[in-house]
Design a protein that fits this description.
Blueprint (H helix, E strand, L loop, with lengths): L2 E5 L2 E5 L5 H7 L6 E4 L6 H8 L5 E5 L6 H7 L5 E4 L9 H5 L6 E4 L2 E2 L1 H7 L6 E4 L3 E2 L1 H7 L6 E2 L8 H7 L5 E6 L8 E6 L3
Parallel strand pairs: 2-3, 3-4, 4-5, 5-6, 6-8, 7-9, 8-10, 10-11
Antiparallel strand pairs: 1-2, 11-12
Length: 192
């Protein structure tokens, strides 16, 4: 399908597949680009999109992409929203956090190892879909340089929240009890 709309310069297209040359043209959008419906993102298309320098790039959903595609997309020159990636390929998360600028990604299980990888990102980091984040992961994540938004996280343990409170620039929901996966409570921002 080829549905295209524009809202004050932000271009939104709905496509099931895309040619690299078309992707290169779309990537020239200066206000922002949303591509909805591509489930398989080829390396060539990712390279074309990663060459863009617009306000934002949102690709949703993405079921299949390679580490090479992640490396290419990390080069995008604006806000990068990869919330639609349900499963990161081996090495993909390591590649995408090389993006310099605002990055929004989905990571459901933030283990110590994944937190260490996320902490390598520099800039504003939004992590959506978090269902588990314990104190070991929190200790790694606080090394991140920039702001971190975990506002919709459901699984931040009380011990992890205590670590986050010690660092400015982390937004997270307060745990409501001592259960391993507390339901979201009121949002907190760590004290400056």
């Amino acid at each position: 399908s080829d549905v295209c709309s524009s809202d004050l310069g932000h271009l939104e297209v709905t496509l099931e597949e895309i040619d690299p040359e078309i992707a290169r043209v779309l990537a020239t959008s200066r206000k922002g680009l949303s591509i909805i419906g591509i489930r398989d993102l080829s390396d060539d298309v990712a390279a074309a999109l990663g060459s863009g320098r617009g306000g934002s790039l949102n690709i949703d959903p993405v079921e299949r992409l390679s580490r090479n595609a992640c490396e290419s997309l990390a080069g995008y020159g604006g806000w990068l929203n990869m919330n639609g990636v349900q499963s990161w390929p081996e090495g993909g998360l390591e590649a995408i956090v090389q993006h310099r600028g605002g990055l929004s990604i989905r990571v459901t299980d933030v283990s110590r190892e994944r937190a260490r990888v996320l902490a390598r990102h520099r800039g504003n980091l939004y992590v959506v879909g978090v269902e588990r984040l314990d104190e070991d992961a929190a200790r790694e994540l606080v090394a991140h340089v920039g702001t971190i938004d975990l506002a919709n996280a459901r699984g931040i343990t009380p011990a992890a929240a205590a670590i986050f409170r010690q660092r400015a620039g982390i937004r997270f929901p307060e745990p409501t009890d001592a259960s391993p996966s507390p339901s979201p409570g009121p949002l907190s921002a760590a004290a400056p």
